[in-house]
Predict the 3D structure of the following.
Amino acid sequence: MPKKLLLEKLNKQMFACAQCALRKTCHQVVPGEGYAKAKIMFIGEGPGKKEDELGRPFVGSAGKFLDEMLAIIKLKRENIYIANVVKCRPPENRDPLPQEAVTCWPWLLEQIKIIQPKLIVTLGRHSMERFLPNHKISQMHGTLVIKTIPEIGKQNFYTLYHPAAALYNGSMRETLIQDFKKIPKVLKKIEREK
Ligand code: URA
C-alpha cells in the first residue's frame, strides 16, 4: 500500500485513540502532517493551543518561527513530515508526563516505520529524550547521531532546541538558527555515505 494511504489509515486509528487522559481534555488528536515520502521528519513535543484548535502541528507562534527557519534553508512544509511525541495537547501546555509519552510512543514509531525518513530532527528536550535518553540537549544540539532503535533500525538523528524555547531567548535563538542552517549539509552527508 502507498505510504500516503498507510499514514491515512494510521491517522484514523490515532483519531480513535483514548489510551491516556490527554484525550479527555484536548479538542482533537493532532497526528502530524506532511509528505509521506519525506526525507526529513521533524518531531516536536506536543500540540499547543492553536494546534489543538486547528488539528495541525506547529501552527502557533513556534510554528511561525519553524516556518521562518524552513524558508531560510528553502525547505517547504509539503516536502517534510512534522509530528509530535504526544498527539494530544497537554492541559495548560504543560510538559507531557513520561507515561503519556510512553503511551503515545507506538503511534510515533508507526509513523517513522511508514515514512522511513533519512533524517529525524528532534525539536526540544522531550523529543530528543525519546530517542537519545540520558543526553543533554545543551551538548547534543547541532550534532548528527546515528543510533539503532530496535523497532525502526539504524536511524540518523539531529537534535535542535525547541523553537518555542528559543523564540524569546536571544542566544538560544541564534544557536537554533545556526544549527538549523546545517540541516541541508547534514542530509547531503547522510545521502553520500549511505
Ligand atoms: N510545539 C510542539 O512541540 N509541537 C507543536 O505541534 C506545536 C508547538
Q: What stands out?
A: The two ends are 25 Å apart (CA to CA). Residues 44-48, 51, 57-58, 60, 62-63, 84, 164 surround uracil (CB under 6 Å).
